[in-house]
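Quick note —
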Amino acid sequence: MRVRDIIDKIFLIEIFKGLLLTLKMLFSKSVTIQYPFERRKIHDGFRGKHALVRDPFTGDGKCIGCMRCTTVCPSRCIYIKREKTENRMVVTDYVIDASRCIFCAYCVEACPVCALVLTEDFEYSSYTRKSLIFDKEQLLKNWDEFVSKWPHDFYFNKFWQPPGIDPSRWPKTKREQKPIPIKRVIEIEKEKDE
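Predicted structure written out below.
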């Protein structure tokens, strides 16, 4: 054992170094937040609760039943039931099992009509698995809840037109997708109720 090591042990140098570090951190700015009283800023592209986008003009979901989301989903958590009525494909049931979802957002990117979105809502934990299985009505309700809290007049999800892909390869509806008006639609609904 060297003389330096003996001195360190006698005068408890390592312990004082540790205490000095603790004292230094005591007066530094805290990195933790007091959730749920404080909340982090949610950045663009956050992948939270699933929702089916409601068409602002018809009031129904925008899904056309093309099945692209089910095809690209790596966890196979999307189930769509559709039927053809009057030469038109109608989605009768749309189910997402959020407990199986890995939140990759491939379904959002693949949708040609921008009908699906992963909202910024992340507080939907549950004790039952059944409540994490969203049917079409629940997905539309998730959209309504999300847009009611949205602070802006328009909404546009960055996964609807993902960067890095040549826009000429997107379907026409995806290329022409503009931000969805939110506040105006809510105002129209309020006017209808009055």
